[in-house]
Each structure stands twice: as C-alpha cells, then as structure tokens.
Amino acid sequence: MRFAGMQGESVTQGFTRGVRLGVDVGQVRVGVAKCDPDGILASPVVTVARDQQADGDKIPADMAELARLAEEHEAVEVVVGLPVALNGREGVAAGHVRAYVERLGAVVAPRPVVLSDERMSTVVASRRLSERGVRGRRQRAVVDQAAAVEILQGWLDAQRRQT
Questions:
Q1: Where do the TM regions start and end (predicted)?
Q2: Which of these, 161, 163, 158, lies nearest to 4 by C-alpha position?
Q3: Digit-coded pLDDT (tens) for 75-97
Q4: Is 65 exposed, middle or buried, given 0-12, 13-18 or 19+ CB atoms closer than 10 A?
Q5: Which of 110, 128, 134, 143 is the most buried if burial means most Cβ atoms within 10 Å?
Q6: 11: how many CB neighbours lie within 10 A of its CB?
Q7: Across the strands, what pairs with 30?
C-alpha cells in the first residue's frame, strides 16, 4: 500500500499506462470510478453497498465486487481516498479507511492499492452535482461515484505534475 499526496510517504514513481479504479469508501456505500488507460479522464462506474456483516474469514461482498470490477476493467492499480482533516491530521474515519484498504489489498492482489488525500472530495462532488441540477434522492444515488471521480482525477493530475 502506498499513499499519494502527503509528506513522508511514498508516491508512485513514473506513470505506468493502464486503467485505474478510484474508490470512495463510506460507512454505507462505496463509490467507484475508473480512468482511461492513458490516465487522462476519470469517469463514474457504480455505487456498491458496504457489507458490514461479513464474518472474519469471509470476503465482504463490496470488496469482492471491487475485485471483480478490477478484473473486468483490467485495472493496474486501485486508488482509495483517505479522509484527511483540513489541518492535515487523520481522524477516526481515516483509521477506518486504512483498515478497509489493508483488507482490500489482499482481495485485489497482486494489484497495488494506493491511498490518496481525499480532502473535500464529497463536498466538491455534491456541489458539482447540485450545479448540474442533480439534487435530493438522485444526488444521494450518485454522489459516492462522483466523489470517487474526484479522488481518482486528483490522483491522476498529481501523477502528471510529478512526471
């Protein structure tokens, strides 16, 4: 697992061509996005319900679905948003995401899973949807996908700036 976007942690060196999945992990839903093989544009894929009921040895249904999507889209990497506070500190939500990523890494192996600073991704996604007239129940249905797009697009843009 690598983390992109914070000091003191490694960042992917160079850019390998290939589809990546972007993931916004929430308590109830997981938003998924993907990018084109050249890493230019992220687009929404699906929202998956979180499986909080899986027993210790059983792979949660949401992680199994992420593994299936990674296989289907031939993803070379999975980018997961890490909720960091505006002051740069990690709170309880970040701890939950780190634990999720630890388990997800084993499920999607050998694909690497990287963490990316997702500060404000859901806020930005909600605002953009509202500006486009998507509100209420329709917005709740797609906001997680839109947040995953924000996470992945931000990570892709950061990679381009480094190369």
A1: none
A2: 158
A3: 999 999 999 887 878 888 899 99
A4: middle
A5: 143
A6: 15
A7: 25, 48
Length of the chain counted residue by residue: 163
- Residues 2-162: name the CATH superfamily: YqgF/RNase H-like domain (3.30.420.140)
pLDDT tens digits for 112-158? Answer: 999 998 876 666 666 776 677 766 666 566 778 888 999 999 999 98
- Residue 77, phi then psi, degrees to nearest 5: -160, 155
- For 126, phi and psi rounded to 5 degrees? -60, -45
Locate 93 and state its tokens.
């939500």
- With contact defined as beta carbons under 8 Å apart, do 56 and 65 qualify? no
CB contact at 8 A, 90 and 123: no
Residue 157's Cβ-side half-sphere holds a number of Cα atoms within 13 Å equal to 9
Burial call 73-102: b when 16+ CB within 10 Å, e when fewer: bebbbbbbbbbbeeeeeeeebbeebeebbe
> Could you tell me which of 81, 17, 18, 70 has the C-alpha nearest to residue 45?
70
Question: Where in the chain are the domains?
Answer: 2-162
**84: its two tokens:** 């960091």
Structure tokens that stand for 101 in this block: 């990523």
